[in-house]
Amino acid sequence: MIERRLSFLIAGLVVFFVSAVLWNVSAPTRRPARAGGAVDSTTLVTVRADTTRATPGGASDTTVTRGGQSPAPPAPPLSADASGPSYMELLARSETRRRIRASAGYTYLNEVVAQSEDSMLHRWDNRILTPVRVFLGPSTAANFQPGFLDAVRGAFQRWEEAGVPLRFRLDADSAAAEVRFKWRLQFEIQRTGQTDLTWDQDGRLVNGVVTLATFDPAGRPLSVDDVRVVALHEIGHLIGLDHSADSTDIMFAMTKVRDLSSRDIASARLLYQLPPGTLR
Ligand SMILES: [Zn+2]
Predict the structure, then answer these.
(1) pLDDT for 23-33, tens place per residue?
(2) What is the mean pLDDT of residues 213-231?
(3) Is 20 a member of any domain?
(4) Strand pairing report for 179-184 and 205-213
(5) Phi-psi region of 128 (alpha: psi -120 to 50; beta: other; left: phi over 0)
(6) Minimal CB count within 10 Å: which of 137, 228, 235, 270?
(7) Domain-located, residue 178
(8) Taking all residues of the chain, what is their mean pLDDT, rounded to a whole number?
(9) What does the DSSP 8-state code read for residue 123?
(10) What is the pTM of this model?
């Protein structure tokens, strides 16, 4: 009798775990947009370089991943044991994927996740009380105008007002800053801005570098309002968003609009309601 009960119990457990595995498998998983994302073998920090071109003219925008200096096989996550993520962890990821799928249409997080080379959501921790420290200084680059700094400040304020639980302190000195802004004359390739991010193994952003040009790739000087638009797009990357396929969003790769769309705002808000980290 006890043996029968045990067999029954074991059979039940087997069905349970097989269902769990099948459930996870049946959920669409993302694949990296391209192979080759390298991972720093010691700290599992990944750096992303991302770009935009905000002025009309339709230059192509690319996303590249710059990994560690010496690409190495990714080390296992520090927090996971040898048997991999727990069932509860997989369940939580499944729920996150479900929420992202359910938001299709009013957010573009699905696309963001699809473009993520490591199938991770990347974002800052909630930073209302301890604002992200940003270094934003002037430049000697030609066509640099003091108004560019105000344009960037205005872009930060726009994102803060959009309802993401982030605040930025724009008076940090360079050494203490988590985010640094750099200016350059022009990019050699078709872009006017670039954001490089570093995150930890749990997908939490830890620092970023935003580089803005003062001339577009065609050699035209950028205006204060052009810089505001480029900054809106790059700060979108800075908070963890990637490109939208819809040209009415500021996060469209070749930005056409000059303000955040409702989808930009909804995508950022949802991102900050979800736990960062892998969705696989
Ligand atoms: Zn971009």
Answers:
(1) 444 433 333 33
(2) 97
(3) no
(4) parallel
(5) alpha
(6) 137
(7) yes
(8) 79
(9) B
(10) 0.74
**What's the number of domains the chain is made of?**
1
> In angstroms, what is the span from residue 22 Cα to ligand 1's centroid?
36
Summarize the confidence of residues 48-56 as an average pLDDT. 41
* Dist. CA 262 → ligand 1 center (Å): 18
Residue 8 maps to a domain: no
In a domain, 136, yes or no: yes
Q: Per this entry, what is the length of the chain?
A: 280
Cβ burial, residue 28 (10 Å; 0-12/13-18/19+): exposed
Q: What secondary structure does DSSP assign to 183-220, as a single string? A: EES--SSS-SEEEEEEE-TTSBEEEEEEEEESB-TTSP
Instruction: Report the separation in Å between the CA atom of 127 and the middle of ligand 1, taken as the mean of its atom positions.
Output: 23
For residues 195 and 209, is the Cβ–Cβ distance under 8 A?
Answer: yes
Cα of 140 from ligand 1 centre, angstroms = 25
Q: Is residue 261 classed as helix, strand or coil in its secondary structure? A: coil
C-alpha span between 161 and 117 (Å, rounded): 29
Q: Which domain holds residue 265?
A: 31-278
Centre of ligand 1 to C-alpha 245, Å, is 11
Are 231 and 50 in contact by the 8 Å Cβ rule? The answer is: no
CA of 108 to the centre of ligand 1 (A): 14
CA distance linking residue 131 with residue 126, whole number of Å: 9
